[in-house]
C-alpha cells in the first residue's frame, strides 16, 4: 500500500511539473502558435469568440483549419449572433464540411479562447479586440483546460445552431 501511495504521488508531481504557462504576445508570435496548435490537433478544436474576431480568425487560419478538417478534426465555434451571415463568403467551405459546427449566442462573449484536443488552451487577454490583436495565455495545465472546456460545453448547450441561416447562405450561392 505504501508503494502504491508513492507511485501515485510521483505521478501527480510529474503532471504538475509538466504544466506550463506562456504569455504569447499579439500578432506574429500568436499566429505562429495558433497555426502550430491547429496543425498538431488530432481530434477537436473548440473556439469561443466575438463575431468581430471570428471573420479575421477564419480568414487567417483558413488553410490550417481546412487541413485539420480533412484529417477528421472536429471544429466547434461559438460566436455572438451576426447581423448578416449571408454575406460571409469565406464561411461556405466550412459549413459544407460535417466536421465544422457553428453556434451563436445572443450576447457578446465575455471571453475568447481556443481549446485543442482538450489538452491545451489559449485564453486571450482582451476578448473585444480583433483576431491576433490580443496577447494570449497558453497553458496545458489540466485544471485550467478542464475549466475552459466545461465553460465551453455549457455555452455550446445554450447556443443556437444557425442551420437556417447557413442553409439559406449555401442555397443562395
Sheet-strand content, in percent, reads: 15-25%
Helix content: 40-55%
Instruction: Give the CA-based shape.
Output: globular
CATH superfamily annotation: Endonuclease Chain A
Supply the number of structural domains: 1
Averaging pLDDT over every residue, what do you get? 86
The N- and C-terminal alpha carbons lie at a distance of 67 Å
Report the total helices.
Answer: 7
The CATH topology, please?
Endonuclease, Chain A
Question: Within the largest sheet, what's the order of strands?
Answer: 1-7-6-5-2-3-4-8
Summarize the structure in words.
The structure is a single chain. The protein has one domain (19-172): Endonuclease Chain A (Endonuclease, Chain A, 2-Layer Sandwich). The model is unreliable at 164-173 (pLDDT under 50). It is α+β, with helices and mostly antiparallel strands. It is built from seven helices and eight strands, in the order αβαβααβαββββαβα. It has an eight-stranded mixed sheet with strand order 1-7-6-5-2-3-4-8, sandwiched between helices. The protein is globular, with a radius of gyration of 18 Å.
Amino acid at each position: 500500500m505504501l508503494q502504491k501511495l508513492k507511485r501515485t504521488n510521483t505521478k501527480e508531481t510529474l503532471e504538475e511539473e509538466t504544466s506550463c504557462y506562456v504569455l504569447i504576445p499579439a500578432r506574429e508570435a500568436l499566429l505562429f502558435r495558433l497555426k502550430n496548435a491547429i496543425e498538431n490537433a488530432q481530434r477537436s478544436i473548440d473556439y469561443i469568440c466575438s463575431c468581430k474576431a471570428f471573420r479575421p480568425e477564419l480568414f487567417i487560419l483558413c488553410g490550417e483549419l481546412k487541413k485539420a478538417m480533412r484529417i477528421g478534426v472536429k471544429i466547434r465555434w461559438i460566436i455572438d449572433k451576426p447581423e448578416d451571415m449571408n454575406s460571409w463568403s469565406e464561411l461556405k467551405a466550412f459549413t459544407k464540411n460535417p466536421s465544422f459546427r457553428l453556434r451563436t449566442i445572443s450576447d457578446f462573449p465575455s471571453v475568447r479562447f481556443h481549446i485543442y484536443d482538450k489538452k491545451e488552451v489559449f485564453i486571450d487577454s482582451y476578448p473585444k479586440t480583433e483576431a491576433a490583436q490580443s496577447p494570449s495565455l497558453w497553458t496545458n495545465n489540466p485544471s485550467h483546460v478542464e475549466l475552459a472546456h466545461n465553460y465551453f460545453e455549457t455555452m455550446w448547450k445554450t447556443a443556437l445552431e444557425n442551420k437556417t441561416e447557413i442553409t439559406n447562405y449555401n442555397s443562395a450561392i
